[in-house]
Amino acid sequence: MTHDTARISPLLTALILSVLCGLLIGLGSAVGSTGFESWRNAMQDNTAWQIVWEIRLPRSVGACAAGALLGLAGALAQGLFRNPLADPYLLGSAAGASLGVATSLALLGGSPFATEWMVRMGLTGAAFVGAVLAVVLTLVLARGVQHTLRLLLAGVIVGVVFSAMASLVALIRPEVQQAMQGFLLGSTSFVGWSACVLMLSVLAFSMLISYALSRVLDALTLGESTALSLGLPLLPARVALVSVLALATGTAVAQTGLVAFVGLAAPHLVRSWVKTRHHWIVVLSALMGGVLLSGADLLARMLLSPQELPVGVLTAVLGGGYLLWLMYRSQVARAA
Amino acid sequence: MHKCFITLSTILLISGGVQAEVLRDDRQVEAIFAHPPQRIVSLLPSLTETVCALGQCQKLVGVDRYSNWPEGISKLPQMGGGIDPNIESVVATKPDLVLMGTSARGADRLTALGLKVLSLEPRSHADVQRVIATIAQALHVPRQESDRLWRQIDAAVNAAAQSIPPHAKGQSVYFEVSRAPYGASESSFIGETLRRLGARNILPASMGPFPKINPEFVVRTSPDIIMVGDSGVAEMATRPGWQNLPAIRTQRVCFFNAKESEVLARPGPRMDEAARLMAKCLIDKAKGKS
């Protein structure tokens, strides 16, 4: 069943995706509100150099890294929960991050003098803390990671409660609503080199652990009891994978806001291309996520230039459109 | 020796001719202005208006997409909005000062890219006075001029208040800022103006500046006059119970068009114009007159 549906080998897919990622980063450094000009003048003109090197390049690399984090987190979530609908935000991290941002915005707007530490931590820090807190709360509510269903349910509940609390904060201080909107749509335009380094190191760390534990995900696809009977260290592996999931999602969300759909779509796209085991799926999903988000980022900058579209809108349209087309095609193929 | 020389030259630089201005913005970040900035990007409409009111409009090289007053600035390149400033085009115009609100994102990013950023967010009458003074100081506009600008605005607001006849004073007012509905309370910028005009706001300061209210609250308090942007006109009377509100039955509702709504909503140098708009409403819709 596996070999007749496989169309491209995993290695080739990885190569194609890496090349695409590189191409998109290159293009990303060339395209922006000021067009190709800056790129050509980068050698002579200081400002043009700054635009290419300090704004476009980190932003393109950052989009790729954030997309990869989300793609990896999506693959982990879908593998861990054995559910194709699972996405990285499942454990409540998205809602937690929004609550963190809403709270810090509200406090910032209210009394500028009492919250100097908040300024220093910034929205990024607040989002990360919120995301991690939400996941911890989910784990506490689910009393650990053993029961998939309980974990899912706890995640959904925490998500709903935290986003309700974020709405409440926005209601009490309506002036934060605009800024919240920006965060909810996701944007890569504030990513600098330090954020890139942070995301890439978290990505490398998460990838290492996910790759090492991919056998557990493979075993889980056969069912929990089978996985246990294979003698795999299921509990510690799950704890590690859930932590990686939370860390990867929290880092991406903190830097780029709630970018929709990359985490859900990337693993699906990978599986529609190649049939393989999880050690490839995690790698390919990360690459696919990177390609998706940097592609969307590029389009977001180009379509309305010199204005910009929120990148989250485009990822949903691009990834969602492709998935719909895939579903339609497979239905047609099955009917024929 | 070397260090000594630098210190000495700094002193000479400061004492010779221009005085360096050290300013603290609403984020509590300090900025030093040794020379008056010549290329300014403003990413908040009220700050844009303040720069122009100080007679420094010609120094603006870029604005956000919502800045639209005075007329002349419509020719300037637009660089995104408060929530999505276009970092790249701001840097590309090489400004030596960026003015933006504290709720705007990207201030940190622009600072990290080596630009001088002043984050200022006027939210009250006192804020408007402070922001005018701060911007004037940053632009090396003499203190007397910024003081005079504020006195003019302040006096014009007082004049608007004096133009209201006694029978039009003390009316209760509900000011709706958006259709959710959000109202402007006593503690908001709009509420401050209303108080100076002698109107009674039905929303107390304890509710916060722009509370989301239960439509029932308005029915219960039954304001004499309702002020609202004209986008909310048709919907207002269809709210349950509202068609029987005395203010709606007797048409004591003021609709402000988009331009007027902008004047009312921006805490900036046009707050005297806003006061006149509200005063006119209070006079036109006063109870004694029909």
Walk me through what this model shows.
The complex is a heterodimer of chains A (336) and B (290). In chain A, 78% of the residues lie in helices and 0% in strands. Chain A has 336 residues and is mostly helical. Chain A has one domain (2-335): ABC transporter involved in vitamin B12 uptake, BtuC (Orthogonal Bundle). Residues 1-5 and 110-115 of chain A have low confidence and may be disordered. Chain B is 39% helix and 14% strand. Chain B is built from 12 helices and 11 strands. In chain B, helix 4 links the parallel strand 5 and strand 6. In chain B, helix 5 runs antiparallel to helix 6 (143-162), helix 6 runs parallel beside helix 12 (271-284) and helix 11 crosses helix 12 (271-284). Chain B has helices spanning 2-15, 45-53, 87-92, 107-112, 125-138, 143-162, 189-196, 215-221, 233-236, 246-249, 258-265, 271-284; strands spanning 21-24, 30-33, 40-42, 60-63, 97-100, 117-119, 172-178, 182-183, 200-201, 225-229, 253-256.
Summarize the structure.
The complex is a heterodimer of chains A (336) and B (290). Chain A is an all-alpha fold and 336 residues long.
Q: Give the tally of β-strands of chain A.
A: 0
CATH architecture of the largest domain in chain B: 3-Layer(aba) Sandwich
Rounded to the nearest angstrom, the distance between the terminal CA atoms of chain A is 19 Å
Mean pLDDT of chain B: 86
Give me the number of helical elements of chain A: 15
Number of strands of chain B: 11
Overall morphology of chain A: globular
